[in-house]
């Protein structure tokens, strides 16, 4: 276990290093300057600006400096937001993104698990079919389409919830629902399969035979075992929520990381793009590792490293 | 009970002959793997309907821009933001194809009369007066191109990489596995966005980005299956008979992998289609004047409150594409690999 963990963590750092380097060199190839009023600047002024941000030095020097700073947790300073350090910018923006992601994940998995359970308990009835229908829609309809329609029909036409900005809990409801469609779909499908399998097993028959009530069987005996494999999909799901938040934040004008990332791309703000990419990548590999470890803890039958042969 | 005995005379019953030689007889024609799979797909109504709908979408994507009689990039500002109007359907009041728009005060106005337009724009026009019918089907072509591309990349690079890595094993496998491990660690979205930054947004950069990232999942599945298959006797037999490695892979392993390959490809396609639309929506995909469903939704989204048709029509088309691909993928998975059924 310890050896496996060490190997995984080493890989994690290797991956992160490659991503950071890749991002750096790709940023260097990109045409265009990062300075907002570049066309107003003369050649001499350009030189001064470049010197100020260290862009006049040879690329290997810049690279060494970048990696050195990165190891100390310094991601440079943003070109577009009045020289604010990127880490400050990102931390300010992390809050809304995290809240949105966590809410969507929580809401989505709970609704999805319930849908899946009822579909399995009432297999081949209208409950099952409508749950499957919701799952197919949730998986198929792009989240930005869903978000747009939600904003138009529920927000604008019905006027139930505010449609833009991030000023309190009621502002988070529509984006959360829009983002949670995928978790709902995936959790519902997964739960249904697992529950059907578990409900057919011997210990459920035993529970029925000893006279346990319907709800006791469903929630006490079946659910706990059916939940285990769901943990495996939580990792990839969290990643797709991170991707999804890019558009959702754009649509609902939420001051989060994704919205900033999209904006930074359009104005060539290298440090912010690099910082966000590295942060996303770091979150990504950490989540995958945590899920793998969790999986081993929850279900001891599963050996992480393949176990004895 | 007594009735039966009286109604059916005893002499109509005969003892059954038990012939042990005949019990082994196969009395139904044997089916190949593909016939069997097709039978199971046909039984799945969702998959069958999806197949038909997908066929219609493909035909419309190819024929649509030709039959509309309008260019996808021809701007004519006096005709901008017209609602949809279709000959024949315009008089059916509950269909939204009468060219009538409800304004903010709740009053219905015939935009075609106001702007004195004699032509019919079947899906209406956008802010620059371009025909949305043509643009929607042009955009669908892009989505279908991406679908085809993703499938081809998966089938060529992914399968070859996985099969070679799994079949040869040893050090080669080790190196190839390390490469995929790192590639898997990098979020696809980030690779795609970085590629697009370097190569300018457009169809070529999306193609390159998909080529770099799209095949990894397939390679891993194919490798795992190859590892299992190559230990089996028929491979040993083929080797003993002196067949080359290339022949063993292509003639013996690949046909056995076909089911897995198809299932995986079918699940990659909707992801790729979504990715293109997603990138176009955030402005990193296709650029003006070209249209993809993502850019159309993005443009329509900006005027959603005033001209909802400009977003809703492309939104419906992309949703239909995604739903049919997903349903077909589910159906094929159930048909080709009953063990994976959910």
UniProtKB/TrEMBL annotation, chain A:
CDD domains: TM_PBP2. The keyword Transport applies. Its main location: membrane. It comes from the Bacteria. It is a multi-pass membrane protein. InterPro entries: BPD_transp_1_N (IPR045621), MetI-like (IPR000515), MetI-like_sf (IPR035906). The chain crosses the membrane at residues 9-30, 100-121, 133-153, 173-191, 230-252, 272-298. Belongs to the binding-protein-dependent transport system permease family. This is Oligopeptide transport system permease protein OppB. It comes from Mesobacillus selenatarsenatis (strain DSM 18680 / JCM 14380 / FERM P-15431 / SF-1).
TrEMBL record, chain B:
InterPro entries: BP-dependent_transpt_permease, MetI-like, MetI-like_sf, OppC_N. The keyword Transferase does not apply. GO terms for biological process: peptide transport; protein transport; transmembrane transport. It is found in: Cell membrane. CDD domains: TM_PBP2. Keywords: Cell membrane, Membrane, Peptide transport, Protein transport, Transmembrane, Transmembrane helix, Transport. Pfam families: BPD_transp_1 (PF00528), OppC_N (PF12911). The chain crosses the membrane at residues 47-67, 142-167, 179-197, 203-222, 257-282, 311-332. The keyword Plastid does not apply. GO terms for cellular component: plasma membrane. Its main location: membrane. Residues 140-329 form the ABC transmembrane type-1 domain. It is a multi-pass membrane protein. Belongs to the binding-protein-dependent transport system permease family. OppBC subfamily. This is Oligopeptide transport system permease protein OppC. The lineage of its organism: Bacteria, Bacillati, Bacillota, Bacilli, Bacillales.
